[in-house]
Each structure stands twice: as structure tokens, then as C-alpha cells.
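Q: What does the assembled structure look like for these inputs?
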Amino acid sequence: MTTQVRTEPITVNLGPQHPSTHGVFRMRVTFDGEEIIDVEPIFGYLHRGSEKLAEERTYVQVVTLTDRMDYVGSMLNNQAYMLAVEKLAGVEPAPRGVWLRMIASELQRIASHLVAVGFLIQDLGAWGTPLIYTMREREKILDLFEMLCGARITNSYLRPGGVFMDAPEEFWPAMNELLDELPPRIDDLDDLLTDNDIIFSRTKGVSILTPEQMIDASITGPMLRAAGVDWDLRHRDPYDYYDQVSFDRPLHTAGDNFARYWVRVQEMRESIKIIRQCEKLIEPGPVRPEHDDVPWLLRPPIGDAYAAIEHSKGELGFYLVSDGSISPYRCHVRAPSLINLTLLRDMLVGELLADMFVSFGSVDINMGEVDR
Amino acid sequence: MSKAWDGAKLAESIHESIPGVVVDTSGTDIWIDPDSVPDVMRLLRDGDEFRFQLLSSVTAVDYISYFEVVYHLTSLTRNATAVVKSKTGLGRDEARIPSVVDLWRGADLQEREVWDLMGIIFEGHPNHKRIMLWEGFPGHPLRKDFATYEQSIVPEADRRVPTVVSDEIENGQGS
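A:
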């Protein structure tokens, strides 16, 4: 004879101020015992009106706003914005500037994935130590950014047609040292975590999303590749000089939390490969076009342009409209963090309270970009 | 390299199946009649030559005399992109366009964002609520006629605690 325990659904507000919400995010979750039966995400706690602010700034000043959208991927945001500006204004970028920004954005991708992996483990309950392991490597990447542009998080390194300053001489040996150091560190991470029994049992088969579901919901990036869809804009629609470098695209077929974690770890290795190739291919020269060709006060012709890159979180696109003046008439950001949350309810319903923030963390969102 | 559909060619292909809906073309862009959005989008998603499985982006631009809703579509299997635009012409208070959420779920949050910030009503959206700002916020900030300071200050009389919190306190579930 079985005894039926009557449980009553209970609604809990999680967030907005909660450490595991990766910023300020609120979810209204209804639980039946420990099981999640309904989720309603509530956005907007970090909304700063970036798109409106962009309409009142010059094209170069908007770079500072893009830094503050996804603040663990500033270089990548800069790159997406610059590609849109260059497309809009018809700017021919300087080759050395392009190589430098490819190096910078691949370093940023590693840093961003390190944060994603570190916090995922933190969400699993491994407080502190693994996170510090990943943050230690990230610090070294931020040191390199400091050499490049003087800033660590809000870089504003890129300019239309390239970057604003050439890398100093001491940058190259420091970067090589880091690139030698990183693969063994990632191996360490693999040894510690990928084959870890606790990680296995907590993440395998949790919050599975199928490729059809994700494509329908416009989800891109590592999440899509974790379900076996070979879709990487660097490969399918190469921007900058990604057609001149070769790299693999790690794919997993499970589409669960473990697959999303695994894909990110493997992508870090591929980024190192790309940086090494960039270093071989880069040649001396100007890092941005002459001032006469591309003035600081850029006035693109009337029209619109959409440019997208493979951000560490998915497809990051900028849609710019110009009315011929010095500031954009409209600046829309296709934010992967926001759009990847479309299926949050499907991911969480039926899972347990303990897995909730792990699944949420495995999406790898950044609230600065979700709310903008 | 992914292929961007030429506007004129795309218009021609759409015309073969649904005649008379493409209003204008220019470069890679096509403009379609707002009422025909569900039909054209269904064709672009399911049609054999298009196969745009992924809706990259939905956004809107305020051109003062009209609003323009812009869809960026991507085909994963054909590795192609297309830009579809539509002008809403019902004036500033009644700007309407049919929703595409039943075709692509990816439009869900993006259409809510456009409604919130630009004030375009997406007919048929299952959860047509504001997303970034709170219900009761005066105006839509991305509109060009939005007075940035005065309108954004909520009058004392309109200020209220968020309804969700008060519900829970009444149900005895709040802290």
C-alpha cells in the first residue's frame, strides 16, 4: 500500500538579488514539493536603455556602451559593433587591426568560457575553489587586455577599421607565455571536472533541449552546438579573417547541461589554436585606416546594416540605421543572452530545485546583455 | 560564406506563391504588406527553396511617419540570410502587425521587447506584456517623440508596489 502525500504548489520569488542569478534576474517559480511545475522569468532589473543612449552618441562613443552590455565579453561586443559600423560606412579595415582584434576577441572568448565553466561548478555546490581556478587564468587574460588598451573589463579597444593602438612589444611574449600555460590548465580542469562522478550524475540528462526546439527558439552558440548542430558563424559566415585560420568545432549530441559545459571547455582549446595562427599571420603595418579616410566623427551614408558574430554566448548582432548624421538613428542589439532564455521554462519544468540554477547557469547568460 | 538573398529575386520567388504582397525591394531588402506577414513568413520558413528555420532578429525602427518592423532570417541548411521589412501604417497609437510567435518561438521575447520599447502591438502574441519596463510605464522610450526626462518620471499618484509581491503577501506566501 502506498501513502499519497498531498503536496501543495508553492510559489517562490527567486531573485532579483541572489548570487546564483548571475546578476539581477528574477524568476517566479512554482514548486510542487521539490519539483518545478512553472517558471516565469521577469526581466528588466538591469535595463539601462543602451539602445536609446546610442542614439545620442557618435559612432565611436557607442563603443563604450557595447562594453557594458556583456561585461565578460567586451572585446567580442566591440567586434560585432565595429563590423556593423564598417558595413554601414563602407570602411575598409586595416589588416593589422583586424588580426589584433581577432586575437583580442579569441582571448575574450576564453575568458568568457572560463567564467561560464567556473560559475556552473559554483552553481553545482562546489563553493569557491574551482571558481578560483578558472578566475586565475581569466586574470592573466585581463592583464593582457591591460597591456593592449589600459582597461581590463570595459576595454573600448576597437575603432572603425581596426583598433586604436598597436600592441606593445611586451604583449607578445606575455601572450605566448599564457598560451603555453593554458592547455595544461584546461587539462587540469578536464581531469578535475569532466570525469568527475558528481558532475556526471548532477548534469547528465538534466534539462535536455533538442536541436529542433532550439532552432525554433532562435537559440545559437554553444547551446546549439551541444545538441549536435554544426552552426558557428566563424565557420559558416566568416567575418574578419576567420576564413584564413583553421579550427575545429567541438560538438556534443546530448543537449543537456553536461554537453553545454563540455562544448565550452573544448572551445577554449580551439581559441588557443586560432590565436597561435593569428600570431603567425599578423604583419607590421597601420592598425587603423588614415584619419582622412575614416575620421573620428564618422558620418555613414543613409541606410542600414546588420552584422553578426559568433559571440561566446551565441549570435551577437548589431542592426544600425544611419540618417547621415554623426550618431546612429537606431541601434538594435540582437542579444544572445536574452534570446537564449526563450526556452527557460521548457528547460526547468519537471526538474528539481537543486538543478534549477545549474540549468540556468548552463545557458551562460549575462544580465548586462539580457536587459541592456 | 553565407549567401544573402537578393531582394528582387526573393520578391519574385514569393510572388510565384503569394502574388501581390511584396510592396518594394531595394538591395537585399524586401518590404511586405503587414497583413501578409504570417503567410509570407510561413512560406519563407517551410518553402523548399527558402528553408529559413532560424529567425535571427526582430526589431523595429521609428521613421516618425511610420514604423518599420525588420526581420532577419537565417537558413541553416541553405546557409543563407534574408531581410524582410514591413511598414505599419495605422498611426502612432495603433501600430499593429501580426505576431510570428506561432511560426518561430524565438520571436517571443523579441516581440515583447519591441512592444515595450517601441510600442508596436503584435497581434496574436500569447504573452503580450512589457519586458524591460514595468506595466504602467508611460510611453515607449525608443520612439523618437519620447521626451526622455519628463515622461519617464512617474507621477506620485501612479506609483505602486509591483502587483506580484502584494499577491503573495495576501496568499500568506510572502516573507
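Chain A has one domain: 10-371.
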